[in-house]
């Protein structure tokens, strides 16, 4: 077994009552202003987005389009089922919130055909899982926690199904990846073109966007380089760093966080680059599956990554483990 070192390490750290996950400041994982109502509205915002995405996809692309793109029956029927789930999540959450519920925003999705729709579906389902997982610890009312968990497991089923349809591992890591509110909000903001007028703004903010230069799919832990287009230039002009500030690419995968010092690329492009996605150190699994990355001034030793020291994000990469572990 490839990760046989992992369980003893985990057992040892539990025995020592050491924190398994130290990646965020306490504030990032504290209940937001408004508590559970805000969290339910955050969930509702994501469910509206997913519902709209599947509604458009089912209208834009036919069963024949999905078959031609390599997604044979009953794929289209299962997409309808996913749409039904998202629609039901929306009506459930909106019903529970009553007059406090936010309304549907307006959205724009970059998918242009059946294949790009399925690729984006995989990203959105993964983000949904990470959003519910990150929010879970902040829910105060235990009965809401059961509801959120009940939705989370269905989102993860969607994610596995879509990943398998893309010939990606349906369960790429023994742990899923929690993201905090602002990290998820940053990802959702890429698709939201406007909030409903009159709705109270959710108390979250999007980080400056992070652009990953397209190079390969999937990336491989322990070997693939990554370039962050104009990241240095953008952070300098926003006054977030000075020319001497070290900037780290911080990867999140499962319960692991990996810090890699970036450097400028040759020439004057204003890009930042790392030579390889880390494979993980002793006691860590390699980043695998849908991996998230932010740029931060935290080095992971003296300072942990937090919303306060994040300078851009969130980027998403599909990462294969080092070596050639078979997917199926
Ligand atoms: C559906 O098609 C419309 C019109 O071309 C486009 O604006 C929209 O982004 C598409 N939606 C999805 C999810 O592909
Ligand atoms: C953090 O400390 C470890 C152990 O001293 C070292 O190997 C690693 O390079 C340091 N990381 C950073 C980002 O400075």
UniProtKB/TrEMBL annotation:
Q: Does the keyword Isomerase apply?
A: no
Q: Would you tell me the protein name for this molecule?
A: Uncharacterized protein
Listed A to Z, the keywords are:
Signal
Span of the signal peptide: 1-17
Q: Is this entry keyworded Transferase?
A: no
**Organism placement in taxonomy:** Eukaryota, Fungi, Dikarya, Ascomycota, Pezizomycotina
Q: Spell out the InterPro entries in the cross-references.
A: Ferritin-like_SF (IPR009078), Pigment-catalase-like (IPR052965)
**Record organism:** Mollisia scopiformis (Conifer needle endophyte fungus)
């Amino acid at each position: 077994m490839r990760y046989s070192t992992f369980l003893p390490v985990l057992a040892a750290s539990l025995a020592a009552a050491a924190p398994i996950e130290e990646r965020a400041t306490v504030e990032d994982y504290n209940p937001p202003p408004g508590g559970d109502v805000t969290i339910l509205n955050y969930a509702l915002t994501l469910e509206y987005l997913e519902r709209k995405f599947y509604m458009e996809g089912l209208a834009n692309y036919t069963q024949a389009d999905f078959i031609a793109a390599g997604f044979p029956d009953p794929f289209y029927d299962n997409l309808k089922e996913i749409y039904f789930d998202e629609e039901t999540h929306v009506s459930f959450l909106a019903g529970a919130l009553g007059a406090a519920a936010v309304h549907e925003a307006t959205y724009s999705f970059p998918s242009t055909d059946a294949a790009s729709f399925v690729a984006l579906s995989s990203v959105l389902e993964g983000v949904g899982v990470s959003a519910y997982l990150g929010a879970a610890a902040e829910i105060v009312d235990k009965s809401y926690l059961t509801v959120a968990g009940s939705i989370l497991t269905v989102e993860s089923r969607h994610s596995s199904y879509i990943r398998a349809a893309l010939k990606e591992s349906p369960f790429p890591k023994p742990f899923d990846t929690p993201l905090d509110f602002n990290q998820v909000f940053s990802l959702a903001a890429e698709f939201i073109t406007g909030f409903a007028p009159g709705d109270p703004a959710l108390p979250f903010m999007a980080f400056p966007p992070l652009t990953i230069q397209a190079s390969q799919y999937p990336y491989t832990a322990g070997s693939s380089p990554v370039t962050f287009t104009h990241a240095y230039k953008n952070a300098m002009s926003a006054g977030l760093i000075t020319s001497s500030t070290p900037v780290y690419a911080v990867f999140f995968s499962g319960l692991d966080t990996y810090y890699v010092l970036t450097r400028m690329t040759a020439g004057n492009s204003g890009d930042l680059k790392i030579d390889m996605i880390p494979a993980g150190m002793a006691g860590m699994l390699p980043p695998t599956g849908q991996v998230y990355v932010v740029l931060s001034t935290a080095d992971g030793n003296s300072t942990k990554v937090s919303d306060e020291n994040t300078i851009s994000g969130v980027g998403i990469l599909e990462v294969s483990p080092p070596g050639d572990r078979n997917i199926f």
